[in-house]
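Task: sequence design from structure.
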């Protein structure tokens, strides 16, 4: 369902270049829960950015559901991403002036979904993350763990084919982290494909498969 071939990403800063991804190749079958691990600076976020079409690689191809994403125009990439992909950031990245429900409605409204339908779907998604009682709260009225769950609801509200999460528990206490992992495991049980970056071994172990990066290359792969 996702097939990565010889992916290369090079950053240029002034006269210096840094190859953050060095010819990465792997595939992720539909429904898999994959954890990407590795030390800080190993290229995890860079890889996730390319896979989720938030950035463009210098070389290589990413096939998602048989669509060669390198052939899409920038407008097509945006609409493909909005329709098919969900992304959870370490720092939640929800909008402070919008309520939980309004934040979750956002990706649907951006796709032109009718407002009443968007409201209903947002409420359903917020129930899935156990926030049905917090629909009208602003982010400032929610704990970090609750804000991250709003961000998860926003990332799943449009039933994405692939859910990406970049260190989703890095800013959370143990209890909130476990709640987030429980949500992922439940979504996975329902067939959701998940690609999660984490540097916490006990969370990586919960995934079906781990890929470890070092200096922009895959150095290890385990299936549990
Ligand atoms: P990780 O998420 O594993 O900590 P990153 O993917 O963020 O690692 O970074 C991989 C390497 O690429 C690092 O050396 C980092 O400094 C560099 N890098 C990441 N993003 C940029 C950027 N936008 N410009 C320049 N260098 C970057
Ligand atoms: Mg990172």
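Answer:
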């Amino acid at each position: 369902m996702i097939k990565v071939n010889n992916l290369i990403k090079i950053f240029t800063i002034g006269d210096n270049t840094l190859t953050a991804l060095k010819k990465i190749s792997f595939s992720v079958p539909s429904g898999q829960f994959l954890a990407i691990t590795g030390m800080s600076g190993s290229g995890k976020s860079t890889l996730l950015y390319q896979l989720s079409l938030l950035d463009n690689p210098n070389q290589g191809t990413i096939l998602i559901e048989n669509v060669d994403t390198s052939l899409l125009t920038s407008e097509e990439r945006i609409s493909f991403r909005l329709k098919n992909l969900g992304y959870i950031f370490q720092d939640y990245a929800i909008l402070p002036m919008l309520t939980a429900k309004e934040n979750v409605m956002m990706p649907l409204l951006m796709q032109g979904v009718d407002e009443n339908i968007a409201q209903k779907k947002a409420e359903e998604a917020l129930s899935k993350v156990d926030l049905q009682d917090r629909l009208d709260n602003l982010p400032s009225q929610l704990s970090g763990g609750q804000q991250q769950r709003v961000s998860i609801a926003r990332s799943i509200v449009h039933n994405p084919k692939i859910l990406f999460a970049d260190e989703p528990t890095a800013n959370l206490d143990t209890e909130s982290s476990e709640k987030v992992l429980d949500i992922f495991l439940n979504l996975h049980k329902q067939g959701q494909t998940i690609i999660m970056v984490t540097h916490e071994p006990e969370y990586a172990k919960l995934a079906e498969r781990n890929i470890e990066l070092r200096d922009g290359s895959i150095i290890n792969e385990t299936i549990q």
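The chain has one domain: 2-223.
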